[in-house]
Amino acid sequence: MHEVADARIPAMRAPRVIRPLVLLAFAAAALVALPAAALAGGGQAAARPAAQPSAVPASGGPASQAFGQDAATAVTLVIAARPTAWTGRAVTLSGAVSPAQPVGTVVTIEWKPLGAGSWALLTTMTLTADSTYSVRWTPALDPHGYLELRAGVPDGAGGAVSSPVRRLTLNPANQHHVLFKYAHFIVIVVHEYRLYYYEHGVLIRRFDVALGRPGFPTPIGTFHVYGKRKPAGGPEGACAMFYRPAGGIAIHGTDRPWLISRPAPRNYSHGCARMRNKQALWLYRRVPVGTTVRNYR
């Protein structure tokens, strides 16, 4: 600053021919200050460094938390099914990527148990001309339960851009359509004279039972175990699990086990389901109060 000030004072008294020289000096200084990268590129600004991929999220969250996510790229995942699906039944998984990506870009769909575990590959497909994808997925028996799904495409830097996490309840296929969400579930099929016990939609055991005789039919509908008693004694045998207050209807043991060994129909009770005592005790230990009991005709 000092040298410039000293140069300008005499310049005011100098002849006019010196002023162009001063202007050229300032222009030269400005030219030296230009970035070398800009000169090399013909005056174009230098390219910004590529964005670094972020960490893989532990669980579902907003799209901004997806690993490798670029604010300019968005991936969606749609599960064309109710919140629950069944093993062995096809489910459509579809979505889109924006802005549009090249045809043939590989889309990966991954899964893991809800809130735990590591992501694993479920299936892959490629983008179509309109930057969308769709695939029919038929779940096998395993895994089943509460799952998390996400879709992703490469980000060009060795990582991926992922969709927000979607949740799906996958029920194991069973003949009575018992949902995975039920830790314990009892089905009685009256015309079969059989009781079925499920845990999380998986059939654990099946039992022959005796049911209501004429005038005292076994009730049809959905009920819940509201009380238990052991020992029960008398016609109730070793134990009893009560599920309908009206009439004191229960699942219980028996004091006449030979009746259950007879072929169907076995109409010997006042509406209750009679079991062999050893089997009734097995069930008693596993069935808490609140267990659903569903009786079919």
Descriptive notes:
The protein is mainly beta. 13% of the residues lie in helices and 34% in strands. It is built from 4 helices and 21 strands. Strand 8 and strand 9 form a beta hairpin. It is elongated, with a radius of gyration of 37 Å. It starts with a helix and ends with a strand. Residues 1-71 have low confidence and may be disordered.
Quick overview of this protein structure:
By secondary structure, this protein is mainly beta.
State the shape: elongated
Outline the low-pLDDT stretches: 1-71
Q: Helix segment count?
A: 4
Largest beta sheet, briefly? Answer: 6 strands, mixed
Core attributes:
297 residues; Immunoglobulin-like; 5-stranded mixed β-sheet; 34% strand; disordered N terminus
SSE blueprint and pairings:
Blueprint lengths: L1 H10 L7 H15 L2 H5 L33 E2 L2 E3 L3 E3 L4 E8 L7 E8 L6 E7 L5 E6 L7 E10 L5 E3 L3 E6 L13 E5 L4 E6 L2 E7 L2 E2 L8 E4 L2 E3 L10 E5 L4 E4 L14 E3 L3 E2 L2 H10 L5 E5 L1
Parallel strand pairs: 3-10, 11-21, 14-19, 18-20
Antiparallel strand pairs: 1-4, 2-4, 4-7, 5-6, 5-8, 8-9, 8-10, 11-12, 12-13, 15-21, 16-17, 17-18
